[in-house]
Design a protein that fits this description.
Length: 1045
């Protein structure tokens, strides 16, 4: 029995009259509160009382009379009732807002979608508290038609706030008001631009319960002071965990409300928002300083969580959304594509054969093609997207009706609680949830079955399953520069274009001149010259087949899928134009114009420096570039022009091979009791600062002369770009240095540009992957190590200055790789350009975390962190996805992390890999819907999944297959000897490879030792495979069969 004294001290509504209070005590002592609708409406927070005063003068002096235009009021509704609401404010609202306490937005995301779908008129802004998000799940809760911003916890679970804003709202973050203290307050504030009125500030707030209220009040009061001084319309919504119904007796609540009132904020919710069997509390609210009379607010009775959603609609001429932009779209229907091809087939291209100028020839071709393109695929105005498309496609009309019935049962239970109603509601709810799961599973079964032969559609479905939609955040309407605000879209576009175009020249101008020239590092002119052979229709068809259909178009707006669909009709004229281009050494001018889209990176979105450019070139330029790229690559490989340790953008080279080569060198040095110093250089905007004249000179040195060089010079000359910002376009600006971003030739030109960098070194052999440059040197004497490295770094500094490249010293560091048992009692000082370098114990190299002892613990921890989140995603989907679909998710979300460079980092102690293995066991149980303690070995075999240990064996065997079949780069060709090469005895093992001798365990974990060991253990039927596909199939069968035994 609950004592009366306890209830008197703890009831949140003890301000009620004696009769009501005694009734509450009786109900709590004998069962659940009977919170019928009348009782709920009695529990009302309304400190602003406006009694009818007889004295007219005193009415002017009464603060309650002047504080607000009307007392706050709210009502309880379910979604159906809100749609049927006749309040004129609801029907004509210009701005609407809702707050949800989600108690796991990711876990309850389907429920949120159902709730929003059932409310016909979408809310302008939706604030969420207790999101319980992390860096991964925050990307998986995007809602169509909304941008989402989040402030989630980094160090512990729970809490977190977020805000959804309709896509047509232009907003910016208010970082000075955003806090994330799990023991005080969590906030997220944005400012919405109102073109013809005051801007709107919206904040989502969560106060963690059971913590010091005084600290919260201090911080919250500071926030209110900050946003109030701006004289803007403000809305602060959230879960404050301070019960306004205790206003009369709880000091902290009084201080909270007094602080709100003192900043002219009033609450819009006046009834309890959280009901339990023993309490009714008003802790969720929407506070505003808006004095509009046209406000309709309320509470939605919904079982999303243990808090009811709250909402408010506003009708105010000064609050309005941006005018909906008229949308235009082209229809690429089968009928239009067929019409286009038919029209294209009637064009006589013979006139192109008589033209001698590649520019004129291409202009004639693209004019005809574009004219037909515009005619057959005209831009047509389309209706704006329905902002209320929240409904998940598996929710049938019958299910939606059932959801509404469930809501009515819930409302009846809340307003008239009894055992019978509770049983009816819970039974109906459980059956409905079961039916929804079946419907969702059936829907995705059908979708994945229809997409089984379409990789692109399959991946699109996978992203839909995990809700990995891109949140479309609009670009700000104003930017800051030179102490003023810029709002004109054309000026903003021009500013962006100027900034992007000058990145390279600005960096190059800061590099001091040095006495030697770049030519001093070039060795021996090539005696051969590149001859440009003409292309053929067959080559162009092969090139076309390699291009992705979804490639974004350039300024001409011609998408790749239209080109591919019509290529059989234009292959011959295109071949003639390309051959004319190669013959004359002229690259068409119209293919040298890039459309640039600014993409936000981080920090203040109103600063130009916080954006990166995405450059879009015409799709037809890719054919010209690929033809030239084929000839340049063939020439470079044939005459071995490229540096042997350049692993970037080359056939049969990869990050995995680069890492294997590095670890082989380091482990061998440690085995010899040497220390290896590795310096990891970060080149600043290397692709953007490449000097054209230096490139031309180097290409000529390598044998690319005459017409080939003229073609390349033409390719770079008069290249232009413009920036598209929303609907505005900048004027074109000429690009003076760098390689074209997004081009096919750009990476090849860059690796040719830095091809002579190793010539700057006398004792080291740099390892390159495009612009990732690493220098390694091993020695047993620390003094020698330091002196040699400083000399080599000085030489590399001179080379970079000669070639107008620079290093970002903030991102450059060095590591000393050594045995764990070796003490390094020496203070190293390494310098680059007279600037000291930072020593690190661990760094990220080509996507893999490498530490000084090569333990791989950091990288394994990184993998576990990533795949554990994916396991959670698959686990959340287990009830409505089939095992086949979950297996597809496994290979899309988890397997890439386990396989990437696995032959290097996975060759370690079993105890290190067990963390990954445990996560794999967990996910196979989820995929097969097995008990969490089920034996996992049969499940791996059933699904055909390799565990992390087997993946390591497979990857090492794969390396050995390439080695055995001479498919590896030259530095690997003499890596192993066979027994027959060591002795003349005619033994059965004469053809077996011999492992390197190893003094340390570290070297035994490398391919130098494990490669031959694993290869020699394989059956002859596998090692004699003549193709990689055959080898792969047999090897997988072998490993899976071995795991079953």
């Amino acid at each position: 029995m609950i004592s009366e004294s306890y209830l008197q001290s703890s009831l949140p509504f003890n301000h009620l009259d004696d009769t009501s209070f005694n009734l509450a005590i009786y109900e709590l002592s004998h069962g659940p509160i009977n919170c019928d609708s009348d009782r709920l409406n009695m529990l009302l927070f309304n400190p602003i009382e406006r009694p009818e005063l007889c004295n007219p003068l005193s009415s002017y002096l009464d603060p309650d009379s002047n504080f607000a235009t009307r007392p706050p009021s709210s009502k309880y509704v379910v979604e159906e009732e809100l749609n049927e609401e006749s309040d004129p404010v609801n029907n004509t609202a210009s701005f609407s807002i809702m707050h949800l306490n989600a108690r796991s937005l990711f876990g309850n995301f389907d429920k949120v979608n159902v709730l929003l779908n059932n409310i016909h008129k979408p809310f302008s802004v939706i604030g969420v508290s207790e999101t319980w998000l992390n860096d991964t799940t925050s990307e998986l809760v995007n809602i169509i038609g909304y941008s989402f911003v989040s402030n989630h916890r980094k160090s512990k679970s729970g809490g977190g706030v977020g805000i959804y804003l309709q896509n047509d709202l232009d907003y910016k973050l208010r970082p000075e008001c955003n806090f994330s203290d799990p023991e005080v307050i969590e906030t997220l504030f944005v400012e919405i631009t109102v073109p013809k009125g005051k801007n709107i500030i919206v904040g989502s707030v969560y106060r963690p319960p059971n913590y010091n209220v005084a600290s919260f009040l201090d911080k919250f009061n500071d926030i209110l002071s900050y946003i109030s001084k701006d004289n803007k319309q403000c809305f602060v919504l959230g879960d404050f965990n301070l019960d306004l119904l205790q206003y009369d007796r709880h000091l902290a609540t009084q201080e909270f409300v007094d602080s709100l009132f003192s900043h002219a904020f009033i609450p819009l919710i006046s009834n309890p928002t959280r009901l339990t069997s023993h309490s009714a509390t008003l802790i969720d609210n929407i506070f505003t300083n808006s004095v509009s009379r046209n406000i309709f607010s309320g509470i939605v009775l919904n079982d999303l969580s243990d808090h009811f959603p709250v909402f408010a609609y506003f009708r105010d001429d000064n609050i309005s959304h941006s005018k909906a932009k008229k949308l235009f779209k082209r229809s690429f229907s089968d009928a239009n594509l067929n019409n286009f091809n038919e029209s294209l087939s009637n064009i006589d291209w013979s006139k192109l054969l008589n033209q001698e100028d590649p520019n004129e020839s291409y202009n004639s071709f693209i004019d005809e093609y574009s004219k037909l393109f515009q005619s057959c695929f005209p831009l047509k105005a389309i209706k704006g997207k329905n902002m209320n498309k929240f409904r998940s496609p598996w929710l049938t009309p019958g299910l939606l009706k059932s959801i509404n019935r469930k809501n009515r049962l819930y409302k009846r239970l809340i307003t008239s609680p009894n055992k019978s109603g509770e049983l009816q509601y819970k039974t109906y709810k459980n059956k409905l949830n079961h039916l929804i799961r079946i419907a969702k599973r059936s829907y995705y079964d059908r979708k994945f079955d229809s997409a089984k032969n379409d990789l692109k559609l399959t991946w699109k479905l996978l992203k839909e399953v995990i809700n990995k939609r891109k949140s479309k955040s609009p670009l700000p309407s104003s930017f800051k520069a030179e102490g003023r605000s810029i709002t004109d879209p054309t000026e903003i576009a021009n500013r962006f274009c100027k900034y992007f175009t000058n990145i390279g020249p600005r960096l190059a101008s800061a590099i001091p001149a040095v006495s030697p020239t770049f030519r001093s590092f070039l060795s021996g002119n090539s005696n051969t010259a590149l001859t440009l052979k003409p292309t053929t229709v067959r080559e162009l068809e092969n090139i076309c087949s390699t291009f992705a259909s979804g490639k974004a178009p350039g300024y001409d707006n011609i998408p790749m899928h239209v080109i591919k669909n019509s290529f059989h009709l234009i292959s011959t004229p295109l071949m003639n134009i390309i051959n004319l281009s190669l013959l004359k050494g002229i690259f068409p001018d119209k293919l040298k114009i890039a459309k640039v889209i600014p993409v936000y990176k981080a920090e203040d979105p109103c600063l130009f420096v916080n954006y990166r450019p995405i450059s879009l070139l015409p799709n037809f330029s890719k054919f010209f570039e690929k033809v030239m790229c084929n000839r340049l690559t063939e020439f470079a490989e044939k005459y071995e022009l490229l540096y042997c340790c350049q692993f970037g953008f080359r056939k049969n080279h990869s990050t995995s091979l680069a890492l294997i080569h590095l670890i082989n060198k380091i482990s061998s040095a440690i085995d010899r009791r040497e220390i290896t110093a590795g310096v990891f250089l970060d080149l600043s905007k290397a692709f953007d600062t490449l000097d054209h004249e230096i490139l031309f000179a180097k290409l000529e040195h390598y044998g690319i002369r005459d017409v080939a060089l003229r073609w390349i010079k033409s390719y770079f000359s008069c290249r232009q770009q413009f920036v598209q910002f929303n609907e505005a376009c900048s004027t074109k600006q000429t690009i003076k240095c760098g390689v074209p971003q997004g081009s096919i030739l750009g990476p090849l030109f860059f690796i040719l540009y830095i091809n002579d960098l190793p010539n700057a070194s006398k004792l080291t052999q740099p390892l390159l992957f495009a612009d990732d440059t690493s220098i390694f040197y091993s020695h047993s004497d620390p003094n020698r190590l330091q002196s040699v490295l400083n000399e080599e770094l000085s030489n590399f500094d001179v080379w970079l200055k000669c070639n107008k490249l620079s290093v970002n010293l903030k991102k450059t560091n060095y590591i000393f790789f050594k045995s764990r048992q070796k003490e390094l009692n020496y203070h190293f000082n390494l310098f680059f350009g007279n600037q000291p370098l930072v020593q690190a114990n661990m760094t990220k190299f080509l996507g893999v975390y490498v530490d000084e002892h090569l333990t791989w613990k950091h990288h394994i921890s990184f993998i576990c962190k990533q795949i554990s989140k994916s396991v959670g995603i698959i686990s959340r989907s287990r009830f409505y996805l089939t095992s086949k679909t979950k297996l597809t998710l496994y290979y899309a979300l988890i397997y890439p992390y386990i396989t990437y460079c696995n032959s290097t980092w996975s060759s370690t102690y079993v105890s290190n890999l067990n963390r990954i293995f445990c996560l794999q066991k967990r996910v196979v149980r989820v995929i097969t819907n097995s008990d969490y303690r089920a034996h996992s070995a049969p499940l791996f075999a059933k699904l055909g999944i390799l565990d992390v240990f087997q993946v390591n064996s497979f990857q090492i065997a794969k390396f050995m297959f390439y080695y055995h079949n001479l498919l590896l780069p030259p530095m690997f060709l003499n890596l192993f000897l066979t027994s027959g090469q060591v002795h003349n005895y005619g033994t059965r093992t004469a053809g077996c490879y011999r492992s390197h001798s190893c003094r340390t365990n570290l070297k035994q974990f490398t391919i130098l030792y494990l490669g031959p060991k694993i290869w020699n253990s394989l059956p002859i039927s596998i090692t004699s495979s003549t193709s990689f596909l055959t080898f792969k199939t047999k090897m997988l069968e072998f490993l899976l069969k071995k795991s079953k035994s």
